Amino acid sequence: MTKPSCEYQPGLEGIPVAQSSISFVDGKNGILEYRGINIEELAQKSTFLETAYLLIWGKLPTKDELANFQDEITRHRRVKYHIRDMMKCFPESGHPMDALQTSAAALGLFYSRRALAKEEYIRDAVVRLLAKIPTMVAAFAQMRMGNDPVQPSDNLNYAANFLYMLTEKEPEPLEARIFDVCLMLHAEHTMNASTFSAMVTASTLTDPYAVVASAVGTLAGPLHGGANEEVLVMLEEIGSVENVRPYIEDCIENKKKIMGFGHRVYKVKDPRAKILQQLAERLFELTGHDEYYDIALEVEKVVTEKLGHKGIYANVDFYSGLVYRKLGIKPDLFTPMFAISRVAGWLAHWKEQLAVNRIFRPTQVYIGDRGIPYVAIEDR
Ligand code: ACO
């Protein structure tokens, strides 16, 4: 029997599970880099698809490489009618993350099951998943309201096309740009729960659709991607700036987690939260002030005052919901927005994993009894 080489750590805290050159995070100084490039610089100068290319292939694309990649994605945006028909049978009240997880897994029914570490196989899967996931999210959002899905528009870029499929209205260029930056900010974040889940699934050499479906399931929980939806619920519950202090004090007294705060790695304000806050402010200039923003600012002030000494500050989920709300996106679609973007990071790790794969098979510390005799049912 293999002996455990280190102590059991709940949540695998501090245990490296991979060697990776995809992203770097410095939680003490609030730094996040994708392939060595600071997220703030990418947010100013790049686009989501260029960033996805960088994450997955490890370098910024040339003009031609980027144009080809964008073209391929545009050509693969449609989903097969079988998948649309299947989605029509989903209950309208079902959560969009469950709809997405099911439809992502369903893509595997149409494409090769066995993952191959070959450039062509990887490229096809990357293009299909990046192209089709937004279409499936928007299709479910339309179908649950009784509408036919809006077909993708070849004339719109990645972010603008998604907002168009979701709202049936072409967004303002600034709205599309802000959404694109949100996608970049959420695209990758080292060894988080959903990425680890993707890697465990990838390590069995199953298909990349199953890898993404696993990761979507993991992202859905309120301690991970689901927190952005919970932030809006919390701001609604608080209702006014005056209620912030008693609400937060009550949470702290009753050991209730304040959504959108705290992070396993960041012990300062998440750099993505800073950028998202600036984006929210730019959006409010375009579309009008949001009273929830005043509540959010007060929440951040009080939480920082009360919990800052424990290293608990606003994380990426705190301001993203306010941006999405202003873009006309419903709260239960916030986590699918995260998923659309994080597909890039999951696929980058999938590709990296395929190159050096060894199946994940950790160990456990058994704490149960041993050698217990079986007791017949009539004697229990
Ligand atoms: N509100 C109040 N207290 C908190 C919070 C919070 N949001 N986060 C951590 N704490 C406290 C805990 O109560 C605990 O206190 P204690 O030592 O007195 O018992 C201490 O800080 C450590 O908390 P853990 O939950 O053990 O920290 P961990 O690293 O395991 O969890 C997590 C990190 C899950 C993100 C946590 O901070 C949390 O639940 N936050 C709220 C949910 C959230 O916003 N999630 C999104 C994270 S970002 C992302 O996944 C994209």
From TrEMBL:
Active site: 263, 317
InterPro entries, per database record: 2-MeCitrate/Citrate_synth_II, Citrate_synth-like_lrg_a-sub, Citrate_synth-like_sm_a-sub, Citrate_synthase, Citrate_synthase_AS, Citrate_synthase_bac-typ, Citrate_synthase_sf
Cellular component annotations (GO), alphabetically ordered: cytosol
UniProt-recorded Gene Ontology molecular function terms: citrate synthase activity
Pfam families according to UniProt: Citrate_synt
This protein's name: Citrate synthase
Keyword Transferase: yes
Catalytic activity: oxaloacetate + acetyl-CoA + H2O = citrate + CoA + H(+)
Top-level taxon: Bacteria
Classification lineage: Bacteria, Bacillati, Cyanobacteriota, Cyanophyceae, Oscillatoriophycideae
GO annotation terms (biological process): carbohydrate metabolic process; tricarboxylic acid cycle
The entry's keywords: Acyltransferase, Transferase, Tricarboxylic acid cycle
Pathway(s) the chain acts in: Carbohydrate metabolism; tricarboxylic acid cycle
Protein family membership: Belongs to the citrate synthase family.
